[in-house]
Amino acid sequence: MIVIKKDSSREKFDFSKIKNAVLKSADRTCVILSEEDLLTLEVKVTELIKQLNIDEINVFDIHNIVIDALFEVEPLVAHSYKSYREYKIKNNNMFDEIKKESEYIMYEVDRENANSNSSLISTKKSLIAGSTLRELYKEYFLNDEEIEAVEEGFIYVHDITDRFLASINCCLFDLATVMKGGFTMNNLKYTEPTTILSACNVAGDIIMASSAQQYGGHTTPEIDTTLSYYCEKSFKSHLNKNKKFFRENNIDIDNKKLISLAIKDTYNELKQGIQSLEVKLNTVVSARGSFPFTTFTFGSDPSFWATMVSKAILEVRKHGQGQDKKIQIFPKLVFLYDPELHGEGKELEWLFDEAVDCSKKSMYPDYLSPKYHKREGKWVSPMGCRAYLSSYWDENNEIQFIGRGNIGAISLNLPFIYMEAKTNNEDFYQVLDYYLELIRKIHIKTYAYISKMKASCNPLGFMEGGFYKGNLKANDSIKPVIDTFTASFGVTALNELSELAIQKSVYQDNSFALEVMNHINDKVQEFKKEDGFLYAIYGTPAESLCGTQLKQFRKKFGIIDKVSSREYFSNSFHCHVSEEISPFEKQDHEHELFQYFMGGHIQYTRIADPSNTQALKNIIRRGMEHGFYSGVNFDACHCDDCSHMGIDFNGQCPKCGSTKYTEFNRTCGYLGYSKVHGDTRFNDAKMAEIRERKSM
C-alpha cells in the first residue's frame, strides 16, 4: 500500500508511524496500551484498508481509519487521537489563511484603515503580524459560541488583530503630568522642557511612543492648557534676553514694547513648535507600523497663552505644510465651545471665528458642546474620533476623565440579528439580549485579561503618569488603572434596522430605533450595576465594517430593498447619507438618538459652500445648542501641480486643469484620503457611501 502524504509525496505504508502517534495520544489520557492492544489495532487498521481494495491511500483517510479502529480498542485514546488530529487540521487551516492574507498584504493595497499607508514595508509587517494575532486571539481567547457569533456576523469584535497583546484601546493621555518634572522614556531620563519649542518636540516624542503601545485613538485633552505653561517659560526667557540685549547696546525702549516684542518672539516659537509637531504626526510611522491616530482638544481656557496655543494650532492647520502647503489630517482637532466664552459678543468670539475659518479650509476643527460633554465643570473630550468615557468618581468623590481610557468595543449587527429572529420565528429582543450577554462576557474576560499585565508594558502610561493612577512600579499589576476604563457596546445600521422592521428610515420615523436603543440602554445599565464595570454605548464609526456587515447579511439573507441593496450599511444612528435633507433638518432628526450614545457619538452635516462663513457659523452654533459633538463635511481637494485648494474638483483642477490632485473626506468621525496619487485609501464600501452622500 502506497500512502500519499500532505505534500503529495508518496511512501510505503508503515504502521510504526501510526503506533507512535497512538502512544502519544495514550500518554495524554494517562492510558497504558499493551502490546496486545497495539497488535489488535494493527490488525483492524490493516483489515479496514484492505476492504477499500485500492493501491494508494491519502494520509487523511488513514487517520480516519485509525480513529474508527481505536474506538473499538480503547475509546479514551480514540477521543484523544481524534481531538489532536482536529486540532492539527484546524491549525493548518488557520496558517493557510494567514499565508493567503499575508500574500495579499505583500502585493496588494489593504484599505481596511484609511489612515494606514499599506504600501510601506513597516505597515505590511504590522498587518501581517495582525493577521496572526487575530487567529491566536480567536483560538485561545474566544469560545466556540463567541467565534460562531463573530464569524457569522451577529457581532463584530473591533481591532481583533490587537487584542491578543492585551493592550488598551483609546485614551485621554495626560501629557501635562508626564512632562511635569521630567520623565523616563526608553531608559533615558528626560528633563522637563524649559521652552515651548522643546515642549512641542518632547510632546511629539511622548505621543509617538505612547500611542504605539495601544491600538485606538490617542487624545491629548485640553492641550492649550498643557502647552501654555511652557509658553510662559519661553516668554520670560525672551523678555529677559531682550532686556539684556537692549541694555548692553544702550537702546532705550519702554517696558510695554519689551513685553510686546517678547510676546511676538514667543508666538513665533510656539508656531514653529506646533508646525514641527504636526509634521511629525503626519510623516513619522510609529512602532506599530502606522500613523498614530491623534486628537487635540482645545479652546476653552481663556488665559492669554492658552488662547495663543489654540490660535497657533488653527493657523498651522489652515495654512498647510510643505512646499505645496498641503492640509494635514492629523491630529484631529476638536474645539471646546463654551457659549459664555465663544458666543456672540463674548470674550473669545474671535477665537471661534478663527476656528470657523480653519474649518472652511480643512474641515477641522470639530466642535464640542458643554451641554452633554462637560460634567461637574470638567470637559469630557473624545478619545480619537468619537469614543467617550463614562463618569468615574475617585475616593474623594471627585469626577475624573483625563488619563482614563477604553479597553475595546464590540458592535452588534442589528439588521442581521433582527432577520435571524424573524426567520426563526423568535422574539427579536430575546435574540438581541443573547448577543448583548455574549458581548458582556467578552468584556468581562477582557478586563481580567488586561488587568494581569504589568506596568512595564506601557511605561509612559502606567509608570510616568500618562494614565490616571499611572504611578506604578514596573512589576505592579495595572488593574487599579484598568478598573477606571470603559468597555463599549457598539451599535451600527439603525437606519437599515428601521427599514427592515417598519419599512421606514430613521429620518421618516425613528420610533422603532428609539425603542431598540431604550432596550439596549436598559440592559447595559443593568450590566453596569451588576458587574461594576464602566460600560458605555457606542455609535460605531463603521469604516470597513459598513461593508463587512453588509456582506455578512447578504450571504445569509440575500438582497432586501433599502436594507442590503446598497454596498454598505449606515453608520451608527445617522440618517441615511442619501436623504435629501438640509443641515438643520439633519440636526433636528439626529438629536434624539444622539443622546443614547454617550459612550461614542458625533453629528455631522454636509456643507455645499464652506466659503459662506455666516452659514457655517449658524450651523455650528445651532449644533452646540443641541448639545452635539459636531463636524462639517465637504469634498476638500488640493491640486498636486498648482497647489490650488477647493471643493469637489470632479476629475480635474478648476485652476490649471491637472488631474493630479489629493482629495480628503470624512470617512466616519475622522478624515482620510479618498484620493491620493491616483488611488484611494478608503475601502470599496466606504467609497460607495461617499458617492451617494447628500446630507453627510
Radius of gyration: 30 Å
Q: Which spans of ≥5 residues are poorly predicted at pLDDT below 50?
A: none
How would you describe the shape? Answer: globular
Number of helices in the DSSP assignment: 25
Largest sheet: 7 strands, mixed
Q: How many strands in all? A: 24
Strand order of the largest sheet: 5-8-9-10-11-20-19
Mean pLDDT: 92
Binned, the helix content reads 40-55%
Description:
This protein is of the alpha/beta class and 696 residues long. The termini are far apart.
Please give a handful of descriptors for the protein shown.
696 residues, alpha/beta, seven-stranded mixed beta sheet, four-stranded mixed beta sheet, 25 helices, 24 strands
Provide a compact summary of the structure.
It contains 25 helices and 24 strands. It is an alpha/beta fold.
